[in-house]
């Protein structure tokens, strides 16, 4: 039982502390707005991390800073636990680089696989996916769902 709790804790922790994420966000419908031009700035929202036996709900903020010339975008996130058991990490901060070209935001890593869509105004994003962590030589998976972000 202690090993199961440890695996759940590590999966939730990895979901909130992954340094990079393979995230792909594209427009939900055809739009005249270039999402890449509206991406920078402050975002607010939340989502759920489900590691099988434990479900954690997080709320937080993100800041997207434009890159310079060939430097990618910089995304900083600050998230707090809104609801869930003590096994859920109470707070997490993350920073990672990203690129945005032709209305598609991409952040690459082997630790996560998420996709989502942006509305026609480029100010609301919905995402879901999976994060992965190795625990004792086993690959543990946690589901990220109901992620809803709004441009501030």
Blueprint of the fold:
Elements lengths: L1 H16 L5 E5 L7 H4 L2 E10 L4 E11 L7 E11 L7 E11 L2 E4 L4 E7 L5 E12 L2 E14 L1
Parallel strand pairs: 1-7
Antiparallel strand pairs: 1-6, 2-3, 2-9, 3-4, 4-5, 5-6, 7-8, 8-9
State the total count of DSSP E strands: 9
Radius of gyration: 16 Å
pLDDT < 50 stretches = 1-10, 12-21
Assembly category: single chain
Discrete helix count? 2
Q: Give the strand order, joined by hyphens, for the main sheet.
A: 1-6-5-4-3-2-9-8-7
Please identify the structural class as seen in this structure. Answer: mainly beta
- Outline, from the CA principal axes? globular
H/E series? HEHEEEEEEEE
Give the terminus-to-terminus CA distance: 43 Å
Strand content: over 45%
Q: Report the mean per-residue pLDDT as an integer.
A: 76
Largest sheet report: 9 strands, mixed, barrel
**Relative helix content:** 10-25%
Task: Explain this structure.
This protein has 152 residues and is mainly beta. The protein contains two helices and nine strands, in the order αβαββββββββ. A nine-stranded mixed beta barrel has the order 1-6-5-4-3-2-9-8-7. Strand 8 and strand 9 (138-151) form a beta hairpin. The longest helix is centred in the first third of the chain and has 16 residues, at 2-17. The radius of gyration is 16 Å and the shape is globular.
Fill in the keyword field for this structure.
single chain, 152 residues, mainly beta, 2 helices, 9 strands, globular, disordered N terminus
Give a brief rundown of this model.
Helix content is 13%, strand content 56%. With 152 residues, it is mostly beta strands.
């Amino acid at each position: 039982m202690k090993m199961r709790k440890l695996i759940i804790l590590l999966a939730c922790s990895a979901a909130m502390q992954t340094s990079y994420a393979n995230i792909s966000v594209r427009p939900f419908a055809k739009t005249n707005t270039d999402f890449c031009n509206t991406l920078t700035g402050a975002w607010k929202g939340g989502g759920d991390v489900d590691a099988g036996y434990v479900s954690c709900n997080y709320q937080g903020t993100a800041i997207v800073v434009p890159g310079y010339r060939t430097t990618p975008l910089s995304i900083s996130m600050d998230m707090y636990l809104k609801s869930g058991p003590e096994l859920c990490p109470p707070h997490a901060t993350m920073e990672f680089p990203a690129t945005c070209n032709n209305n598609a935001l991409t952040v690459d890593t082997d630790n996560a696989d998420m996709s989502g869509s942006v509305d026609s105004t480029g100010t609301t994003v919905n995402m879901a996916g999976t994060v992965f962590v190795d625990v004792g030589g086993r690959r543990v998976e946690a589901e990220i769902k109901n992620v809803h972000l709004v441009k501030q």
